[in-house]
Amino acid sequence: MEKLILHSPSIPTPTPQQQFLFHKSLFSSFKSRTPFHQTSSFLSFISSTRRNPHFQSLSNGDSELVDDEMSFLSLTGKPDRNMALLDDYESDELDLDSDPNHRSGYVALLGKPNVGKSTLANQMVGQKLSIVTDKPQTTRHRILCICSSPDYQMVLYDTPGVLKKEMHKLDSMMMKNVRTAAVNADCVLVVVDACKAPEKIDELLEEGIGDLKDKPPTLLILNKKDLIKPGEVAKKLEWYEKFTDVDEVIPVSAKYGHGIDDVKDWILSKLPHGPAYYPKDIVSEHPERFFVAEIVREKIFMQYRNEIPYVCQVNTVNYKARPDAKDFIQMEILVEKSSQKIILIGREGKALKLLATASRLDIEDFLQKKVYLEIEVKVKENWRQDEALLKNYGYGGQIRVL
Ligand SMILES: Nc1nc2c(ncn2[C@@H]2O[C@H](COP(=O)(O)OP(=O)(O)OP(=O)(O)O)[C@@H](O)[C@H]2O)c(=O)[nH]1
Ligand SMILES: [Mg+2]
Fold first, then answer.
1. Please, which of 50, 86, 212, 239 could form a disulfide with 198 given CB 3.0 to 4.6 Å?
2. Confidence band of 81 (pLDDT split at 50, 70, 90)
3. 133 alpha carbon to ligand 1 midpoint, in Å?
């Protein structure tokens, strides 16, 4: 059964200033006061299952991971505001009779790798949903992050960084997911790194929204402003205002939450009036097993160097919730060569043990319960080129749920 990731209804949505002081969980009742930019922990609330309108039953030819009938979370577009969710959420959950001034809509986050898209998405939601590392190409999937207040609901799509060169089928499938993120967006945020020399964003826009007839309003976010002097920020701001075709430029520090208010105000001015798409306490729709695999992937990025993080695919093979015992989670890490497997496991299995421990601690923090974690490393030659496998791993715009 899939589970949704929820805010606790009893915890008020944080103001932007409070966001990076958002607390750990319903269950730990505000024990942790660590700002989320200082912790690697995933902050989340998990509720009991609800059927999701985007879950579809599919069967495809791949034998390795296929259950008899698999469920997939479709990420192809936004639901019809009036129809799709009503079957699944009670109208009072969606607050459909609410204030006619209520606004809601979809926001696509685009940018090159490593500019801080995921950091910004997490900051806006007030929870760590997307993994963040100092290495480029961390995000591989389109991650749905829902940011709600009594007056609005912003449904953000964090996307993989736009690549100049697509090396593998994986890259081209990731880029397709970037493009489709903007298709239904009510507005687009293009993130650039303030530390880098200013550069035109035409290619980025072309990649993200090039095919669209009606161009959505676009905001350029000059991120990491904390790393440069204020005078430099002003110069870069001016350059981007002059040389890019965007509606506005806002400097921010996603890591420290500066400027997030301004970004939200801008988004709000572009969102149409209408009721919420999702109940206000939901912050994402991806299933737990997805986040669990992402946590392991983040730890791989942190522990291993060079090409290793990029050749790893992490799958949750088995996930058994056990009310009276630790949850049982079986993961597999796929690499492309046996030499990579040797590195991943390390001498006498020490590296893998370290990885498993770091992952388990974060998973327990995320799920708010103890788990038994088993990780196996396997070789799957050229998995990054195998379209059927890649689809099965969720790169085709659909994520498998239990
Ligand atoms: N100093 C500073 N660092 C930041 C800021 N925003 C992000 N970072 C750092 O930049 C690095 C990349 O951040 P991510 O959020 O993973 O970047 P991304 O654009 O999602 O990267 P991909 O998923 O690879 O496309 C991480 O080390 C972040 O901590 C910021 O405002 N200030
Ligand atoms: Mg990212």
1. 239
2. low
3. 7
Q: d(Cα 380, Cα 45) in Å, to the nearest integer?
A: 34
What string of DSSP letters covers 249-300? Answer: EEE-BTTTTBTHHHHHHHHHHHSPB---SS-TTEEE-S-HHHHHHHHHHHHH
Query: Is residue 218 domain-resident?
Result: yes
Nearest to 288 by CA among 122, 52, 32, 123: 52
Average confidence (pLDDT) over 363-367: 92
Sequence-distant (6+) residues with CB within 8 A of 108 are: 156, 157, 159, 181, 182, 185, 187, 188, 189, 208, 209, 216
The one-letter amino acid code at 92 reads D
Secondary structure letter of residue 12 according to DSSP: P
Mean pLDDT of the chain: 80
Q: What is the pLDDT of residues 323-334, one digit of tens each?
A: 889 999 999 999
Among 183, 187, 186, 181, smallest CA distance to 161 is for: 181
37 CB within 6 A, ligand 1: no
174 and 227 assigned to the same domain: yes
Same domain, 86 and 202: yes
**Could you identify the residue written with the tokens 């205002």?**
241
Q: What is the chain's length?
A: 402
Q: For residues 402 and 397, what is the distance between their CA atoms, to the nearest angstrom?
A: 17
CB of 114 closer than 6 A to ligand 1? yes
CATH number reported for the structural domain that contains residue 369 in this entry = 3.30.300.20
115 CA distance to ligand 1 middle (Å): 5
Q: Each residue of 84-126: pLDDT tens digit?
A: 444 555 566 665 566 889 999 999 999 999 999 999 999 999 9
| One domain for residues 375 and 276 | no
Q: How many Å apart are CA 396 and CA 174, to the nearest integer?
A: 8
- The mean per-residue pLDDT over the stretch 20-46 comes to 28
Ligand 1 pocket member 137 (CB < 6 A): yes
